Amino acid sequence: MIEILTPRELNRARETGALVASILQTLKTRSVVGTNLLDIDRWAKALILEAEAQSCYVDYAPSFGRGPFGHYICTAVNDAVLHGLPHDYALADGDLLTLDLAVTKDGMAADSAISFLVGESRPEGSVAMILATELALAAGIAAAQPGARIGDISHAIGSVLSEAGYPINVEFGGHGIGSTMHQDPHVSNTGRPGRGYTLRPGLLLALEPWVMADTDELVTDPDGWTLRSATGARTAHSEHTIAITVDGAEILTLPAAPAGAPR
């Protein structure tokens, strides 16, 4: 299913996107050395319920997982990259943490992910890898113009990741989003320009470049959910929900500027 949102639905999606961005930034601030992943999940639940929103993850049970997921946020540490199931683990200095959050409010979903380093240590290659996913995401967003095609987005993302030297896995990528979290079209993190679905105003997409430092192969944890790099290498993941408008792509999950910051 591919949804094209009405202006009223898009306004509701903007509100959900702002909520997702706010929760992620709050959780990032709280994620310090010694923080337990189960505490992050508990805080996510409280913030979602306080906003009278619903988690997209608690009852999520796709064919590739051992569902239902049963938690409110994905927490992936170091070599984990996707669908990180929160568990009893205290963050250490230098850990690379990815928080991935999807929420529905007033019938509209939004999905976003951030990767960042915990504490003061900066292990070799980690900052560059996070930056590569952020730059690839920005390139994909820039390519998401009305009349462009899904392949144009995939090509833009893949070009940045390849030029940075990272292998690209095509099993999991971006996706359509709207009244539900996962919809068509699929947005691969590499591809050929000029191919695929034509972008139209009102279309929502969740774009999510992710990489593993030295492999494109994933392995699944015994929990049935957490996906890790097959080599144990570190990973990074950046994601925004965007809306295609007549003027281009609008980022719905962009964090608000801090108070007093220049606009």
TrEMBL record:
Residues 14-245 form the Peptidase M24 domain. A divalent metal cation 1 binds at D100, D111, E239. It catalyses: Release of N-terminal amino acids, preferentially methionine, from peptides and arylamides. InterPro entries: Creatinase/aminopeptidase-like, Pept_M24, Pept_M24_MAP, Pept_M24A_MAP1. The keyword Protease applies. GO terms for biological process: proteolysis. Keywords: Aminopeptidase, Hydrolase, Metal-binding, Protease. Its EC number is 3.4.11.18. Pfam families: Peptidase_M24. Binds 2 divalent metal cations per subunit. Has a high-affinity and a low affinity metal-binding site. The true nature of the physiological cofactor is under debate. The enzyme is active with cobalt, zinc, manganese or divalent iron ions. Most likely, methionine aminopeptidases function as mononuclear Fe(2+)-metalloproteases under physiological conditions, and the catalytically relevant metal-binding site has been assigned to the histidine-containing high-affinity site. Its cofactor is Co(2+); Zn(2+); Mn(2+); Fe(2+). One of its GO terms (molecular function) is metalloaminopeptidase activity. A divalent metal cation 2 binds at D111, H175, E208, E239. Gene3D superfamilies: Creatinase/methionine aminopeptidase superfamily. One of its GO terms (cellular component) is cytosol. The keyword Hydrolase applies. Substrate binds at H83, H182. Belongs to the peptidase M24A family. Methionine aminopeptidase type 1 subfamily. Monomer. Removes the N-terminal methionine from nascent proteins. The N-terminal methionine is often cleaved when the second residue in the primary sequence is small and uncharged (Met-Ala-, Cys, Gly, Pro, Ser, Thr, or Val). Requires deformylation of the N(alpha)-formylated initiator methionine before it can be hydrolyzed. NCBIfam families: met_pdase_I (TIGR00500). This is Methionine aminopeptidase. The gene is map.
